[in-house]
Backbone:
């Protein structure tokens, strides 16, 4: 059975790491309606840890580059599962859905991102990259004003 495409390369994964880590530490608890709760603290801690080990990962956006990329991906998976398990281990799930749903949702997001991440770091996007590059090099003014109509009438 063929493997599904894994278009996320190490650079995009790194950008997602820093964005998600920052969002978890800052705005996510308020957006999820859990500001000031134990859950908010756990999610902020998870975001800080995630951003911290991203800075030492050996990928294009890493700063120190000592943690191998595949080890980083393994930490992502373990961290996601640990975050989802936290409210159940601590018993706070008994206080309501808002005390465990954000954890499980973040876990699912992380695991989905990992499923689409190429562990080699290259990404296996199957589109015509050269055609996109050629199109991006064209003069947009020429395409807009000197080109033909954007749409052609349908023929019966």
Residues:
């Amino acid at each position: 059975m063929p493997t599904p495409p894994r278009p996320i390369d190490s650079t995009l994964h790194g950008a997602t790491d820093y964005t998600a880590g920052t969002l978890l530490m800052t705005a996510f608890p308020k957006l999820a309606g859990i500001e000031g709760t134990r859950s908010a603290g756990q999610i902020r801690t998870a975001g800080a840890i995630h951003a911290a080990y991203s800075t030492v990962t050996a990928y294009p956006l890493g700063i120190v580059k000592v943690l191998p990329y595949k080890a980083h991906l393994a930490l992502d998976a373990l961290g996601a599962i640990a975050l989802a398990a936290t409210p159940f281990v601590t018993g706070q799930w008994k206080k309501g859905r808002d005390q465990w749903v954000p954890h499980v949702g973040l876990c699912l997001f992380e695991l989905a991102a990992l499923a689409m991440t190429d562990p080699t770091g290259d990404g296996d996007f199957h589109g015509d990259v050269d055609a996109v590059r050629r199109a991006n090099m064209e003069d947009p003014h020429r395409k807009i004003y000197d080109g033909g109509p954007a749409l052609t009438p349908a023929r019966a």
User: Anything to note?
Assistant: Residues 88 and 100 are 8 Å apart (CA to CA). The chain has a mean pLDDT of 89. The chain has seven helices and no strands.
